[in-house]
Amino acid sequence: xxxxxxxxxxxxxxxxxxxxxxxxxxxxxxxxxxxxxxxxxxxxxxxxxxxxxxxxxxxxxxxxxxxxxxxxxxxxxxxxxxxxxxxxxxxxxxxxxxxxxxxxxxxxxxxxxxxxxxxxxxxxxxxxxxxxxxxxxxxxxxxxxxxxxxxxxxxxxxxxxxxxxxxxxxxxxxxxxxxxxxxxxxxxxxxxxxxxxxxxxxxxxxxxxxxxxxxxxxxxxxxxxxxxxxxxxxxxxxxxxxxxxxxxxxxxxxxxxxxxxxxxxxxxxxxxxxxxxxxxxxxxxxxxxxxxxxxxxxxxxxxxxxxxxxxxxxxxxxxxxxxxxxxxxxxxxxxxxxxxxxxxxxxxxxxxxxxxxxxxxxxxxxxxxxx
Length: 371
Ligand code: ATP
Ligand code: MG
Description:
Rossmann fold; Glutathione S-transferase Yfyf (Class Pi), Chain A, domain 2; 6-stranded mixed sheet; 46% helix; globular; binds adenosine-5'-triphosphate; binds magnesium ion
């Protein structure tokens, strides 16, 4: 799939712009604060009806505007689909695909797209919540079943936590009330843990490959799921172990008033040559890990849906040395899918244009010119 055209009205610092894109590599160049990231954001928003930078639509309105609109044409295996998204204050969002109005929940995740922005480095640097969110987002996009189980699990978790809070201190009464929620938690929770483990294994194999390429085979990436439920690795025994651990933990949980075990507290580690990238990785290494994860995701989408994925890379080249940049570029050139990449370095952009297969766009104050 690729994005052929895009029209923006009142989106961030864009007043009105109409663009058409290359089906291979598109490079957005320009000085700082001119609208490069905003343009990537518009492309992402058109594809999933969400931003990767904010959850508030109002932030996307050009200062002082009442509405914004994005329209574009995606080409998929010879077919084209026209998508239009409009947001209007106070809070009306309209999504249309080939003239048909869709709910956001129906539209979201239809178009395979992956973005890598500097904020994604938090995936390595920060605490576990952001990594769980990554697993849950990717899981939901790859498998509708994952999304449903996650919802079931969180509903059960809420109920269980409410009982633990209300009964804080009196353990006997809580036990019988908790029983049915323990069963639900263990059941849905085990599905989530199994799916996450499978997903990480698939991702490790793809991301590991890209990481090895990026580092010219000198470094190895492994991913390890870190469950709060202790079980000996046999997935069939997981549900039993989950239940057992919940039962053993009653007293402490009642004292604390919340559920202390389960996938809502799990994490995963990214290891470079066996060492935790979070603690020991350099800036460039951490960036390479996240990039490898993101490109690995592209492969997983391709495997799941057969479609080529649009890849957005915001400011990736800063902090990569020449070798890593060259490998990345080679990857972009060799892939069949469309890529968008931003850079503040015009000379780098010009070089890419001369070597072919790339279109360069110059962005200045919300105006885009083909270079
Ligand atoms: P850099 O190279 O520094 O990353 P950039 O070209 O990616 O720069 P953007 O993040 O796209 O820059 O932002 C460009 C400008 O858009 C900023 O100066 C910002 O103030 C402005 N901007 C952000 N949100 C809005 C908005 N809602 N309305 C109007 N302008 C906005
Ligand atoms: Mg930017």
